[in-house]
Amino acid sequence: MDQTRIRNFCIIAHIDHGKSTLADRLLETTGTVSKREMAEQLLDSMDLEREKGITIKAAAARMTYRAADGQEYEYNLIDTPGHVDFTYEVSRSLAACEGALLVVDASQGIEAQTLANVYLAMNQDLKLIPVVNKIDLPHAEPERVAAELERVIGFDQSEVIFASAKEGTGIPEILEAIAKRIPPPSGSARQPLRALIFDSKYDAYKGVVAHVRVFSGTLEGRQTLHLMQTGTTFEPLEYGTFQPQMRPLPVLACGEVGYVATGLKDVADCRVGDTITLEADPAAEPLPGYRQAKPMVFAGIYPTDSDQYQELREALSKLSLNDASLVYEPESSVALGFGFRCGFLGLLHLEIVGERLEREYNLSLLTTAPSVEYQVKLTNAETILIDNPADLPDPSKIAEIQEPWAKIDVITPSRYIGQVMELVTTRRGQFLRMEFLEPESELAPGEARVMLEYDIPMAEILVDFYDNLKGSTSGYASLDYHLSGYRPASLVKVDVLVNGVPVDALSLISHTSNAAREGRVLVSKLRELIPRQMFDVPIQAAVGGRIVARETIRAMRKNVLAKCYGGDITRKRKLLEKQAEGKKRMKRVGNVEIPQEAFMAVLRLRED
Questions:
Q1: Rg (Cα) of the chain, in Å, rounded?
Q2: pLDDT, average across residues 160-169
Q3: Distance CA 293, CA 296 (A)
Q4: Mapping DSSP to helix (H, G, I), strand (E, B) and coil, where does residue 16 land?
Q5: What would the mean pLDDT of 394-423 be, rounded to a whole number?
Q6: 458 vs 589, which has greater pLDDT?
Q7: What CA–CA distance (Å, rounded) separates 353 from 340?
Q8: What is the per-residue pLDDT for 181?
Q9: What is d(CA 108, CA 449) in angstroms, rounded to the nearest whole number?
């Protein structure tokens, strides 16, 4: 295909704005997939993606389109994840394109994550085609949303395409706009080879399959290839494209999107953002923007049955073949036994990995409360990184603790501004700015949407912040966040003692202003969740050796007098004394079993 007739584009949209459905219609209208092969959310191949209605892994598809001018075009669609956890993968996918379809729901308008991805696309200098989707909905307001796109992002209203991906309305106009508005790829086949890896997956027969966009040069033959960031070399097994299934080709020309079967056995050797070049004739410098994916959220994963430890190790090993951003290392806990400390890109990533481990590998798992990574400066001037509260050193050795902060954008109708401000302020958030996305004078009071920007500690938005935000705004608010840096904080470790024994998996790092309250809430929840024993069980929360809260689980009492129908009182007294002596002995050697729900109580500290 002539390079001037190649169009590389992706689709930017908030969750549930119809991105996957639009991709389905484009594949169907161009005849890439026959009606017999067609399925809803075709590019979302994972069961979890279909159930949750989100895109987790990027997918690519090549389409052939005959435009109104009679010319035949090659369209390369890269379907990207929309969630904030996968921002880096989205930025690399955008770097592989020259344009993007910006899809906005006709009833909901611009959301926080849409805006975040628009800024990413603008940084990459992409040509954006605005599409107002779902115009078939009874409560759709396409004209209002088009005006919002004009005001917030700067489009001309004549550029906006009104569509319904479900009904097929507007699809021909979108296909024509891609040919007319998105520029062809630049670069020359005569320059040294440079191909960007925007995704990778593991195949049992072909090793790591790298999804690539060729920026210069040509991929052909069995010449030895070199990865410029990791320094790995390999001889390719196969080249090809996605239609949307993998289809082998002899050559990937300059400007095209496709795959390279590398034969490598570890996805970590073939990272997103790396540049492929020829070992014999390497490029002078790699393509810009590469960085290693850094975990932001950490949690312990333990098998509920200790016999499944080896199976969990193998499952994590296999899962990490397809997910280079998953980091794990063995750890042991006094309370939970042997397990793994895992690092994730965010909470959604944690949830997806946990569900995949349980479903695909038939494991029963316990996940501890997630935490962030703290920088701890010791009195001997050494700095260590802590992602597990149990690893926090003795307070006498700590000079300073720094915690990660995030910048958050919340978009909400103006009538909920008070609730949002109250929620963020109670989480130690710092107000930055407020901007109205639409004039209040044109809408009913309280309906104008406003964007609030805050700085907030990452630990405060980890667990239930998003749920509380949705609850306090009747589901209308949307959230986007990114890490902004580390700041010193007054933090302490809250230890939990069950029957006098510290339970490391229940400890947490808390701000000094919240430590005593969180300790009280946690022990009261544990009192409800831990079953009664034959002896009294004290549950205590301690901060630096000082007990700040205590609850007692009362003993179950067996009626030892049931067999006494009368007789001398001394007989009854003797039985009661014998029972009391036995209870003292049990308390001394008794082992309290703690159920799974107790470990998740840490997640629900702010519900009360």
A1: 29
A2: 89
A3: 9
A4: coil
A5: 90
A6: 458
A7: 13
A8: 92
A9: 10
Lowest mean pLDDT among 25-39, 251-265, 276-290, 321-335: 25-39
Among candidates 217, 234, 221, 229, which has minimal Cα distance to 279? 234
546: how many CB neighbours lie within 10 A of its CB?
A: 8
What local confidence, expressed as pLDDT, does residue 83 receive?
62
Cα dihedral 378→381→387→388 (10° resolution): -30
Write out the DSSP string of 589-600.
H------HHHHH
CA distance 17 to 13: 6
Mean predicted lDDT score pLDDT of the chain: 83
Structure tokens of 217?
């040069």
Neighbours of 480 (CB within 10 A): 23
Q: Which of 275-296 are b and which e, b meaning 16 or more Cβ less than 10 Å from the residue's Cβ?
A: bbbbeeebbeebbeebeebebb
- Give the SS3 label for residue 355: helix
Q: What is the pLDDT of residue 442?
A: 66
Other CB atoms within a 10 A radius of the CB of residue 191 amount to 14
DSSP secondary structure code for residue 462 in this structure: S
3-state secondary structure 471-539: HHCCCCCEEEEEEEEEEEECEEEEEEEECCEECHHHCEEEEHHHHHHHHHHHHHHHHHHCCCCCCCEEE
* Residue 521, CA atoms < 13 Å, CB-side half-sphere: 16
Q: For residues 103 and 25, what is the distance between their CA atoms, to the nearest angstrom?
A: 14
Number of Cβ atoms within 10 Å of the Cβ of 190 = 9
| pLDDT score at 131 | 92
E strands of 305-386, at which residues?
327-333, 337-344, 365-367, 374-378, 383-386
Polymer length of the chain: 608
Report which secondary-structure segment, H or E, holds 242.
Answer: strand 238-242
Residue 195 · residue 256 · CB < 8 Å: no
Q: Within a 10 A sphere around the Cβ of 34, how many other Cβ atoms? A: 9
CB 64 within 8 A of CB 75: yes
Provide the pLDDT confidence category of residue 588 given band limits of 50, 70 and 90: very low
Bridge-based pairing state of the strands 225-227 and 72-79: unpaired
Q: What is the mean pLDDT of residues 323-329?
A: 82
Phi, psi of 474 (to 5 degrees): 55, 30
Calculate mean pLDDT across residues 593-597: 66
- Asked whether 309 and 338 are in contact (CB, 8 A), the reply is yes
pLDDT > 80? residue 85: no
First CA to last CA distance, the chain: 63
CA distance 187 to 192: 10
- The pLDDT of residue 395 is 84
- Which tens digits make up the pLDDT trace of 464-490? 788 888 888 887 788 888 888 899 999
Domains of the chain in sequence order: 3-181 (3.40.50.300), 194-278 (2.40.30.10), 297-367 (3.30.70.870), 397-489 (3.30.70.240), 493-604 (3.30.70.2570)
| Angle subtended at Cα 88 by Cα 466 and Cα 325, rounded to the nearest 5 degrees | 85
- Residue 275: in which H helix or E strand, if any? strand 275-278
- CA torsion 334-340-346-349 (nearest 10°) is -130
| Percent of the chain at pLDDT exceeding 90 | 23
Cα atoms found within 13 Å of the Cα of residue 80, Cβ hemisphere only: 33
Say how far apart CA 429 and CA 454 lie, in whole Å: 6
